[in-house]
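Pilot study result, target chain (85 residues):
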Amino acid sequence: MTTRPTEDDLLALFTQADLGGDQKLDLMEFTLVLDELGLAWTRAETQDRFERADGNLDGFISFEEFRAIMESQGWAERPLPGARA
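Predicted structure:
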C-alpha cells in the first residue's frame, strides 16, 4: 500500500489479517498487517508496537486498539472517527 490507509482500508486489512475470525489480532496477524502496509521492522520493533497497541493487555489487538495505534503513529490518512486525540 503506497498511501496512508483510510478507515475502510484499515478495516479491510484488519479483517484480512484476522485469520482466526475472532475480531482480534495476535502478534503474527499484526505482523501481516504491517507487511501489507509496507512497514518493515525488526522483531523487537514489531513486538514493541504490538505491546503499545494492546491497551487492555489481553495479548491481542482489537480493531479499536488497531485504529488508535494507526492514527497515533500517523499511519492513517486522517484522524479516524472515534480515535482519541
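One observation from the pilot: The longest strand covers residues 24-25. A full batch analysis is planned for the follow-on phase.
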